Amino acid sequence: MNNFVQTMKPRIRSARESMYLLARNKLSLAALILLLLLAAAAILAPVIIPYPEDLADAAHTDISLQPPSAEHLMGTDELGRDIFSRVIYGSRVSLTAALAAVGLSLLIGVPLGAVAGSFGGWVDNVIMRITDVFLSFPPLLLAIAMVVVLGSSLNNAVLAIALSWWPWYTRLIRGQAISMKERKFVQAAETIGTGRMKIIFRHIIPNCISPVIVQASMDIGGVILTVASLSFLSLGAQLPTPEWGLMISMGRRFFPDSWWYCIFPGLAIFITVLCFNLLGDAIREILDPKTRKN
Amino acid sequence: MFQYIVKRIFSSILVLLGVVTITFFIARVLPSSPEVRWAGQRATEEQLEAARIELGLDKSLPEQYVIYLRDLLRGNLGKSLNNHQPVTSELRRYVPATLELVLLAFALAVVIGIPLGIYSAKKKDRLLDHFSRFFSIGAVSLPTFWVALFFQLIFYKGLNLLPIGGRISVEATIFETVPQVTGMLLADCLITGRFGLFLDALRHIILPCITVSLYPIGLVSRMTRSALLEILGEDYMTAGHSYGLSDTRMLWKYALKNSLGTTATDVALSMGYTLTNTFLVEAIFSWPGIGSYISSAVTTLDYPAIIGVTLFGAVCYIILNLLADIIIASDPRVRL
Asked: Is the complex ipTM higher than 0.90?
C-alpha cells in the first residue's frame, strides 16, 4: 500500500526540468522575457525615460496633443507631456500597487486559512462562513464601494482590493492545512508540547505556502487590471501620477481625435496582464500532472 | 437531493445576511460625516442635525442595524445623496438595459465559447487550438474599458459603420415613440412589431455587446476545453476506444455530455465578472444601465447608490451560485 502511494505521488520535478518545460513553450518563454524586461523598466524607470520632468505637472502647452513622432514615440497629452515616458513609469506604479495588494491579501488570508484548517470545529466554521460572504460580492464592486467610502487614493484602492481578495488564499491554504494536520511531523510537534500557534506558524504555514505563492503570482495580472479599472473610475491613483488606468480616463476627453492618449496606456495594461496570464497558464500546466500526459 | 437543495437555500440566506451586514458596516460605520454629504458643505448646524435625524444617525448602531434590515426587507435601499431619490426606484429604471446587454453577451459567449472549446480539445496542440487558447487568455487579459474605446475608434471613427454609443438614435427618440414594455428595448421592439426601431437598437447594441462578451467567451472556451480534456483522459474513454467506438461518437456522445455540468457552473459564475465588466463598458458607450448609474455615482461619492448596486450585484451572484450548485447536484454521478 505504502509503495503504491509512493509511486502514485506526482513526481516532484527539479527546477531545471520545470524551466525546460517552460522554455519549450515559445509563447510562455516570450512572456517571461517580456515580464523581466518590464520589471527592469519599472526598476530603472526614473533613469531610462526620455522626459523625466513630464512625470509630474510639467506643462509645455505649445506641443500639446501631438500625434506619435520620433521625439515622442506615443505622442503627447494635453499638457504636452511625453506619453511614452509616462507609460514606462506607469509600469512601476502598476506593478508596485499589484504586488502590495496581493501581498496584503496574503497577510490577511494565509494566517486565517491556516488557523481555520488546523483548528477545525467552530473556528473553521466561522472563518469559512465569513470567507463565503466576502466571495459572494462580484469582484471589483466591493472594492468600489469601499474606496468610495474611504476616499479615493491609490493606497485606499490597494487596501480595498486586498480586503476583497484575501478569501481566495484563505480557501486555498485551509485545504492544505487540513491535510498537513495529519502529517507525522506536526503530530510529533504536538506530542512534545509545542503550542498551537507555534505549530501553525512554524510548521504548517511554511509547508503549505508554495501552492499559495504560485496562485498569488498568477493573480498579479488580474490585480493589475483591477487597479487600472479603479483608477479609470478615478477611484485609484490621483493626478498627476502616471497610472495607466488614470491616463486612459484623462485621455477620454480627447477621444477619438487624439486616440494615442488612450490607446497606448491601454496597450501597456493589455501586454502586461497578458504576459502574467500566459506565464500563469504555463505554470499551471507544468504543475498539473493530468494535462501533462503526452 | 431535495434535502440538499433546502440546505443550500438556507445557507444562501445566511450568506445573504452576512453580505447585508458587511454593506451596513461599509455604509454606516466607515464613512466620515455622511450628514455633511447629505446636507452639503455649507449646511448650518441645524441642517446637519436634521440630516442626522433623517439618516437615522442619531440612534445607536444596533438600532441602526435593525432599521437597516427592516428597510431592506421592504425593498428600501436608502436615498441617493445626489438627488435624494430612493435608490430602489433608480435601480429599477436602470436594470433592464444592463440585463439586456448581459443576457445577449452571454448568449454570444455560449454560442461562440463552447464550440471553440470543443474544437480546441479535439485538436489539442494544433494551430487552431493554440490560436483559441491565445485568444481566450488574451480575452481575460484585456481591460474592457479600453477595448470599448478601441472599438469606437475603429468602427465609429475609422469605418463609420456603427454608432459611438447610446441605445437608440437621437432621431428615433424625437420622431418616434419608443415602446416601453419590459424595458429591454430589443424585446420591446419585437413585441410591438417595430422592426425599423429594432434594427436601429440592434446597431447600437453590437459594440457594447461584443466588448462585454469577450471575457466570458474566453472563459467559457477555456473551461470547456479543460473539462473535456480531463474527461478524454479518463479510463472509460480508453475503454470506449478499445471497443472500437469512433472518436467523434466518443466526443459528442460521452465526453461532451459529462463535461456540460462543469461548463454550466463556470458560465453561471463568470456572470459575476461579466456584470462588473458591463458596468465599465456601459460608462463608455453611454448605455443607460446600472454601469452608467454607478460611474456617475462614483464621481460624486454617492455611497448609498453604490452600496445599493453592490448589494444588488451580490444578490444576483448568490442566486447564480445557488443555481450552479443545483445544476451540479442534479448530476446523477454526484452523491450528496
From this structure: no
